[in-house]
């Protein structure tokens, strides 16, 4: 079966975007892994699928699959690419657009310069919001934020803010982003048994009250050049800790995002870039990849 796709990125967080409105796209975890594979496939951090909505107020449904095949609740950088894709492919001229994600609606507006602002939907800060088992864990208060002290299997101990932006995030403050133990601690946090649905692990350096540097070890994708929901989580965690004030410029390895937070709702603004379009025979692609690679 031939699938037309468009390769896009949001500050270096890269995606394969599929039109599931005018094409019949039956996505599976195995197919998502095949498409996302950097050597055997097209290569992407996530796969974004645009579908007809099921929510009466939504213009489209927006589904997200990580490179490991897991379907997840939200993708901030992807949402900006989603709205640019919908407009470029003339699926709709509506602006702003309402997109249905796993936990509700998000509102997206594309600007003249093709940057996009996204009202990110619900944000929660309690451990149950991210399926985090904090039984017997030490905690401490900083500003209005509760920080959880999590021992790691490598005997490090990390102090984490909890932020649920539909998808689950924990954020820690580091002195120097360049030497932050992202690749050492990231996997241990992402798959820690206390996170029942795994978690995205953010590492932020405070530059000043309106700027941070951020790296994120993403659930289901590893370290990416940028993470939109991770940028929102870090900015809001810093504001709640009393370390930051809105708006916050988040410097990621792939570029900058602007996060506005009024203690009610988060609005993220940043670019969305179309790289190329192509087509792929999905059945041939899956068949071409050794089983031990596709299903490790
Ligand atoms: N890895 C994330 C999904 C992608 C989020 C990220 N790419 C963004 O821009 O928000 C998760 O499993 O929750």
UniProtKB/TrEMBL annotation:
It holds the Pfam family DAP_epimerase. It comes from the Bacteria. It catalyses: (2S,6S)-2,6-diaminopimelate = meso-2,6-diaminopimelate. One of its GO terms (molecular function) is diaminopimelate epimerase activity. InterPro entries: DAP_epimerase_AS, DAP_epimerase_DapF. Keywords: Amino-acid biosynthesis, Cytoplasm, Isomerase, Lysine biosynthesis. The active site is at residues 75, 227. One of its GO terms (cellular component) is cytosol. NCBIfam families: DapF. This is Diaminopimelate epimerase. It comes from Pelistega indica.
């Amino acid at each position: 079966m031939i699938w037309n796709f468009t390769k896009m990125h949001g500050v270096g967080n890269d995606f394969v975007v599929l039109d599931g409105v005018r094409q019949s796209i039956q996505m599976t975890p195995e197919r998502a892994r095949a498409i996302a594979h950097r050597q055997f496939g097209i290569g992407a951090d996530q796969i974004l699928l645009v579908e007809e909505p099921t929510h009466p107020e939504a213009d489209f449904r927006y589904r997200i699959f990580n490179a490991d095949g897991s379907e997840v609740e939200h993708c901030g950088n992807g949402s900006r690419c989603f709205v640019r894709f919908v407009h470029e492919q003339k699926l709709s001229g509506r602006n702003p657009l309402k997109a249905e994600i796993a936990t509700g609606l998000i509102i997206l507006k594309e600007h003249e310069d093709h940057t996009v602002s996204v009202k990110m939907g619900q944000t929660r800060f309690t451990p149950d919001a991210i399926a985090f088992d904090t039984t017997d864990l030490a905690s401490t208060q900083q500003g209005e934020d509760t920080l959880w002290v999590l021992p790691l299997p490598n005997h490090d101990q990390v102090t984490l803010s909890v932020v649920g932006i539909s998808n689950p995030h924990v954020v820690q403050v580091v002195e120097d982003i360049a030497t932050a133990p992202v690749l050492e601690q990231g996997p241990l946090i992402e798959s820690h048994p206390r996170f029942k649905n795994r978690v995205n692990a953010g590492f932020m350096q405070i530059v000043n009250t309106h700027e941070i540097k951020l790296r994120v070890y993403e659930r289901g994708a590893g370290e990416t050049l940028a993470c939109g929901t991770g940028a929102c989580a870090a900015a809001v965690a810093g504001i709640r800790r009393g370390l930051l004030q809105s708006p916050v410029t988040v410097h990621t390895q792939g570029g900058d995002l602007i996060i506005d937070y009024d203690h009610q709702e988060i609005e993220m603004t940043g670019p969305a870039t179309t790289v190329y379009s192509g087509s792929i025979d999905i059945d041939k692609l899956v068949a071409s990849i050794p089983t031990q690679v596709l299903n490790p």
